[in-house]
Structures are given as C-alpha cells and as structure tokens.
Amino acid sequence: MNDIFLASAIILIITIFLCLYRVLYGPGVENRLIAVNTVGTKTIILLVIIGFLYERPIFMDISIVYAMINFIATLAIAKYLRRGCIC
Amino acid sequence: MSLKGNGSPVARRIALFGILMIFWYTLSGFLDPFHLGAGVLCCAIVTLISGDLIFRSKRSLFESARIFIRFVLYIPQLLLEILYANIDVAYRILHPAMPIDPGLITIETGFTGDVLRTAFANSMTLTPGTVTVDVSGGTFTVHALVLETSQKELLETRDIQNHLGKIFDEAT
Amino acid sequence: MHLLNTLALIFIAIGLFFMVVGAVGLIRLPDFYTRAHASGKCDTLGEGMMLIGFILYEGMTLIAVKLVLLVIFIFITSPTAVHSLVNVAHSRNIAPWKKGDERR
Question: Domain for residue C100, yes or no?
C-alpha cells in the first residue's frame, strides 16, 4: 500500500507543477489566484499522504489547519481585490 | 429553557460551549486533566468573545434539528449528482475539440434565509455545470459551461431549487 | 480487510483521476470563468474521493474521524472560495469568453 501512496504523491506533485504554469503565465491576477488556490487544495492531500507514509498522525492536524488557512487567505485576498483594503 | 424562539443568550452560549468541547476532544484525543483543562479554558474564551455569532436564525431549535436531518438525508442524492456533473466536465475538458459554449444565466428565486442561500449557491457550484458568480437578495447570477443544458436544468426543471425549498420550508 | 483495501484503492484512483483532470483543465480551458469550473468541481470531488479512500484504508480510529471532519470542511469551503474569486472577476467587469473568441 505504501508504494501506491508514494506513486499518488508523485502524480500529485506533477499536477502541482502543471498548475504552476498557470501561476507563472496566467494573464491577470485572477487566473494566478485560482491556480494558487488549486495548488493549496492539492497540498492538503499531499500532507495527508506524508502522514500515512511516515506514520505520523500529527500531519492530519497540520492538514486541517492548512485547509483553514488556505480558505481564509483566499477570502482575504478576494476582499482586498474587491475593496482595496481588508476592512 | 424553552425550545420556542431563539432560546435565551445563556442557553445558546451553553450549547456553543458543548459543541466546542466535543470538537476539542475529537481533535486532541486525550482525556487527562491537563488537556481537558486547556480545552475548557480555550472554549470558555471563544464562547465569551463570539457567543452571539452562532444560532442566529429565528426558528426553534427543534425545527432546526428537523431541517438538519432532512438535509443530511438529501446528501447522498447530491453526491450522485456531483459525480455525474464531474464526469460531464471531465469529458468536456479531455475531448480534443472541447465542446463548450459558456454564458451567463440569471435565476430568480424567493429564497431569503442565509443558510438556504449558501446551500443553494454551493450546490449550484458543485452540480450542473455551473459556477455561482453573484448573489443579491434572491437573484443568483450563474456562469454555465454549456449554456443550453444548464438553462434547461436550472430554468425549466428547477430540480435542486425545489428540493432545497422543500427541505428548508421556504417558497421557491 | 482485503476488500476494504481494494475499495480504498478504487476511491484513491478515481480521486487522482479527477485531480489530474482539474489541473489539465486549468491549462486547457480558454478563460478565467471556465477555469473556475475545473478548479471548483473536479478538485473538490477529487479531494473528497481521495480522503474517503484514506478513511477506508485507515478504519475506525481517531485519524479517520479527523479526515471525516476535513472532508466536510472541504465540501463547504472549496465552492465558497471559488465563488469569492469569480465574484471578484465579475465585479472588475471581465467579460466571459464566447464561442469563437480567441483564448486568453
């Protein structure tokens, strides 16, 4: 089972690099932001896989916190782009 | 403590404290005095600061619980529709000619509740090839990946809309 | 035990497929609104499927409960995040791509 986890982690890293193309060349700030949001959601899964591979349950808590931070960061950036300030 | 109306502020805070303690225990997994004491302290601080943010609807607690159970029973059907929508989007992305025809659709509803509008917008983003663009009052603006099929689904059959209206007891 | 592992494997494979499709769609689709479809739908379902696979592999432990909480959290917040970004693009008057336009 560990080999399968390792293989899926590698495939996920390749998809993250595919998303980084959009971060680098995407026209305008919205395209970049949605690519960054996608990279964040893939990172959550990657953290869970790392927790299973190295048998460290603490990574599940890290991925929960990462999901919350990813969501709040996206909302804060969206609010900043809309109003010009975070208020 | 009466179950009618919104409940007294103290009752709401006690309920919030209980929910937070269950959440704390689920995440920590320890039952020794030190961890429980830290949990009680943190939950008390959160309850004092933001106790009036939760349970803001005007329904009674009993009615809210019934709505919650009906919504949970609706989830399997929603998951199946999400799966169908995803297969459709995956087909359109992977097809060499990309058969897409995007456009904006406006949907008029009579929805007023916050939770209902959030549930409707989120399930529209997830299910029939659409992404919610704008919400103002009961009017939803939606971006559809394929204009014709989404128009047929959202403006004629109105499947999700009728379902959610029935679950939350509001006029569609 | 063997059956559960096979089921977990199937769920992980389907989730991985949808994640890859989401990333490919992010590159192939012609404009911002259509890319939001790929990011909002395929990524959410792919993530949920992979986490359900991990839950089946793990069995009934505290880790599985945490992963269930993560799945519920993701299914509520991921469409909301995509909606906020699309709403920003709409308020900045970015016109949606029509059939026949050039890709941007």
Answer: no
